[in-house]
Amino acid sequence: MSEIVKEVLDEVINKIIQDMPENPPNEMDDEKAKKKLKNERRRLYYNKNIVKEREKSKSYYHRNKERFSTKNECPCGGRYTSVNKNIHYGTRGHLNWVRWTSCNIELQK
Question: pTM of the entire structure?
Fold first, then answer.
């Protein structure tokens, strides 16, 4: 890593450490305070290990690249990737197909 990147990371980490409370209470009643403290710790860890985290993300993507790019056929006639499955289920075409098939099923009874 270049010296400039190390200096910038050190500045960011030092700022986060300065903003964190020195002695966080053991039992916090406020859920927002707990969540904020957890997010600060997560961000601090990520900034300290940014290179390792990016490598982990890249390797995960490359291991699962085929799964992410595989197109699936929907009975409504649409196509979607596994990542966009929920988005497809909310589209107008899919919802119209669901309404149409449910009406036909009720009429057949």
Answer: 0.47
